[in-house]
Amino acid sequence: TILILDFGSQYSHLITRRIREFGVYCEILPCTQKISDLHFHPKGIILSGSPYSVYEQDAPRVDPAVFKLDVPILGICYGLQEIAFHHNGSIAPCDHSEYGHAWLSILKHQDHPLVDKLFENLGDLQVWMSHRDQIDKLPAGFRVVGKTLTSQYAAIAHEEKQIFGVQFHPEVTHTPLGKEILRNFVIGICQAQANWTMESFIDKEIARIRQIVGPNGQVIGAVSGGVDSTVAAKLMKEAIGNRFHAILVDNGVMRLNECETVKKQLGDHLGINLRVLQASALFLNRLKDITDPEKKRKIIGNTFIEVFEAEATKIDQETKEGNHGEIQYLLQGTLYPDVIESVSFKGPSATIKTHHNVGGLLENMKLKLIEPLRELFKDEVRELAKILGLDEELIWRHPFPGPGIAIRILGEVTHEQVAIARAADHIYIEEIKKAGLYRKIAQAYAALLPVKAVGVMGDRRTYEQVIALRAVETTDFMTADWYPFPYDILKRISNRIINEIKGVNRVVYDISSKPPATIEWE
Ligand code: XMP
Asked: Where, by residue number, does ATP bind (predicted)?
């Protein structure tokens, strides 16, 4: 394992990402992590960048024990400065803060072979800088292994201590050969093993789940048909069979045929012990007359909890009679980015963000959380999904919000409005798939607007509703851009929606980016 200590840089997770790509397992922990509390012995340590300056009063500090572990250390940006600071070098603000490309000249030291290993097989190269401070006095025993026009200590190394530092960011794609530098450090210098594969993850995780849950323990979890909850459920099934209870709540605002599809995929195809709760009428009843988006969210969230908990109690009763243990665990499909987001060295909030999907469940049910995917990135989950036998369709499904199409029907959510929105969305997605564009788009859906427009159909005046099509490109869903569809595809979609769906006489395409708009209309 490679340990990454995070000082709060926006790029920290990229370091993790790059190293996992070599097949080397690594963990990211807050920079304040006490080394004596570590549950593993790292093969190497990387100190990340940071928005702080080492001289600031409240600047984050690493546990000095890091430097006594006798394993290779690589400091990146602030990490480099932290190393220099700790070894009595000095750091000063740059004349101008440096942000952007720079050309790194590499200095070789033939008599110090370890020092040369960081840039092994590399010549001078383009790097990405983003810093306000830099070293202005090299600490004793360190050598310069790279410099740029403005930074004479752009890369340094200490042979005996096995400590390396770079002022630039090897983890970003703007440093095109940065991955090779990280590989040299992790594989060449730390000699970490490249044995992190999804197959090994499955075996390890199944064993871990069995150990946590015990021979009689029961686990409950909600599934939505999304890739995360499905993969988590399939892992649970592999680990504890029918002592895992998956629950799908049909809230009446899922997509067309979705409930059936999920039932087939999870229950029949993947063999997961699945209960489908038909609660459409209850949800739609409670949504009557509600037009405020946040109220819709709240009602759907609370009703979900109510239905889920009632079923959990029922399962508890049934299984007690069958001599099984109580339900003690709630399964969540939390991914690593959510965990990282909440790994913070600032203050007491170093807790993991929980229950985005099923807010409130834990408090009420006294259940402990079990999160088999908490070490994985989305693309790793997809790889896992493939190995576990999930259908391609499910693996690449666009994310779908918990409140479903209720937040894509502006205004009141009624049976009729749900039927129109569903039908339009179905045609839209079908045509996107036919055009081979589904995977190019991060998220697409049809929204039903609560306005009526005049039209003409077969010599008759119509007065009907408007469908707005939304499709965005994004990787993190924090910012997004609208997708530039070819006109002929928009034309086909529009024709089909207007001709096939009663109640719609106009289709518009949403060309707003996020920000200032959001991806959902509500
Ligand atoms: P916005 O509309 O905020 O959406 O740009 C960003 C991403 O979050 C999803 N989203 C939700 N997911 N419950 C969810 O589970 C919600 O209430 C919710 N609101 C938005 C949205 O679909 C997009 O992927």
From this structure: 224-230
For residue 24, give the nearest of 185, 175, 172, 167 by alpha carbon. 185
CA distances from 47 to 80, 82, 174 (A): 8, 8, 20
283 burial type by CB count under 10 A (0-12 exposed, 13-18 middle, 19+ buried): buried
More confident residue, 360 or 306: 306
Closest protein CA for atom 20 of ligand 1: 401
Residue 512: its H or E element: none
Percent of the chain with pLDDT over 70: 94
Q: What is the mean pLDDT of the chain?
A: 92
pLDDT > 80? residue 310: yes
- 113: burial class by Cβ within 10 Å (0-12, 13-18, 19+)? exposed
Mean pLDDT over 270-283 rounds to 98
What is the DSSP pairing of strand 73-76 with strand 44-47?
Answer: parallel
CA–CA dist 454, 456 (Å, integer): 7
The ipTM (two decimal places) reads 0.99
Please write the tens of the pLDDT for every residue from 318-334.
877 766 678 999 999 98
User: 44 exposed, middle or buried (CB, 10 Å; 0-12, 13-18, 19+)?
Assistant: buried
* Residue with CA nearest ligand 1 atom 22: 401
Q: What's at 30, amino acid-wise?
A: P
Is residue 181's pLDDT more than 60?
Answer: yes
293 CB-side CA count, 13 A: 11
Active site residue ranges: 77, 169, 171
In 3D, which of 291, 233, 238, 292 has the Cα closest to residue 265? Answer: 233
In this structure, are residues 115 and 144 in contact, taking their beta carbons and an 8 Å threshold? no
Nearest ligand 1 atom to the CA of 356 is 15
Percent of all residues in the chain with a pLDDT value above 90, rounded to a whole number: 81
Strand order across the 244-250 sheet:
274-278, 244-250, 218-222, 327-331, 368-370
Q: What is the pLDDT of residues 58-79, one digit of tens each?
A: 899 999 999 999 999 999 999 9
Q: Contact, 191 vs 29, CB < 8 A?
A: no
Q: Could you tell me the two tokens for 31?
A: 């920079």
pLDDT at residue 428 greater than cutoff 60: yes
CA distance 514 to 113: 50
Q: What sign for the dihedral angle of Cα 33, 34, 39, 44?
A: positive
Instruction: Provide the pLDDT for residue 146.
Output: 97
- What is the C-alpha to C-alpha distance for residues 84 and 296, in angstroms, rounded to an integer? 54
Query: Ligand 1 pocket check: which of 356, 477, 522 to mutate, most ligand atoms within 8 Å of Cβ?
Result: 477
Who lines ligand 1 at CB under 6 A? 297, 357, 399, 401-403, 443, 477, 514, 518-520
CA distance 166 to 157: 9
Q: Dihedrals φ, ψ of 248, to 5°?
A: -115, 120
